[in-house]
Specification:
The chain has three helices and 16 strands. By secondary structure, it is α+β, with helices and mostly antiparallel strands.
Length: about 260
């Protein structure tokens, strides 16, 4: 390298130009190929597919639920969708379907729903949308629904839940109910509401409007009156509000020992 700098000025320039041309011919094609591959693969956070979200009322007619659908350009093969919110919940949170049902958190009227679209181990797109609770729709649904109330009269203890725990729970219902209406029970443990006492359990209302069953324990308990055809979730971040097929709901803390 020192020999180069010992040459006359114009000779040095000529040698340096030759070196530059050598590197350009040798390495620039490879760099161009790498840049093209990077853009195709969505490097540096650039998405390889455009995603747009659409919002519609959910089929359950519950005002606090919205159906969110992702529309994506390009091939739909091998896609997986991951949904996120600020304070609400999405069901499903992750699946092969471009559709999820969003549930507002209690006392929250505005939120944001986001989706990440993955193919294999690579994220190829993302999008988000602001959602707002429709209070007018909620008022109309509430006006159509009969006024029903539910009460828990036998309160289970407040203790950590688990498959080996068991306690009695009972209560009563007032208001206009139909023969197909049922009781749905949840216990709160380990940061989630869990259906009780087994998956898909729906409990009858007696002729005297009372109900009773057993439950695994938790720190709090919830009882809902739901119409025939309601599809319960096994585990929830947030309980469904009253409206649509949910006629009444009550939440109570477990009894302190």
């Amino acid at each position: 390298m020192n020999d180069v700098f010992n040459l006359p000025k114009f000779a040095r320039i000529s040698n340096l130009m030759n070196v530059t041309q050598f590197f350009a011919h040798r390495f620039l094609p490879a760099l161009a190929m790498a840049a093209a591959l990077c853009l195709t693969a969505g490097c540096d956070g650039q998405n390889a597919a455009r995603v747009k979200l659409h919002v519609a009322p959910s089929a359950s007619e519950v005002p606090t639920r919205l159906e969110i659908q992702a529309q994506i350009t390009g091939s739909q093969t091998g896609l997986r969708y991951k949904w996120f919110t600020v304070s609400g919940a999405c069901d499903p949170q992750e699946s092969d379907s471009p559709t999820t049902v969003f549930q507002f958190a209690d006392s929250v009227t505005r939120d944001q729903v986001s989706v990440e679209v993955w193919r294999g181990g690579r994220r190829i797109g993302q999008a988000d949308i602001d959602v707002k609770f429709d209070e007018e729709q909620a008022r109309l649904v509430s006006a159509r629904s009969p006024h029903v109330q539910i009460e828990i009269t036998t309160i289970p203890p407040a203790e950590a839940g688990g498959p080996d725990t068991r306690a009695d729970i009972a209560g009563k219902v007032s208001g206009k109910i139909e023969p197909g209406d049922k009781i749905l029970l949840y216990a709160y443990a380990y940061d989630y509401w869990h259906i009780q006492p087994i998956a898909q359990a729906m409990h009858p209302i007696g002729a005297d409007n009372t109900w009773s069953n057993w439950t695994h324990t938790g720190t709090s308990y919830a009882a809902l009156v739901v119409k025939e055809g309601y599809e319960p979730r096994i585990r929830l971040d947030v309980l469904p509000r009253v409206g649509g097929r949910v006629l009444a709901r009550t939440i109570i803390e477990g009894k302190k020992q």
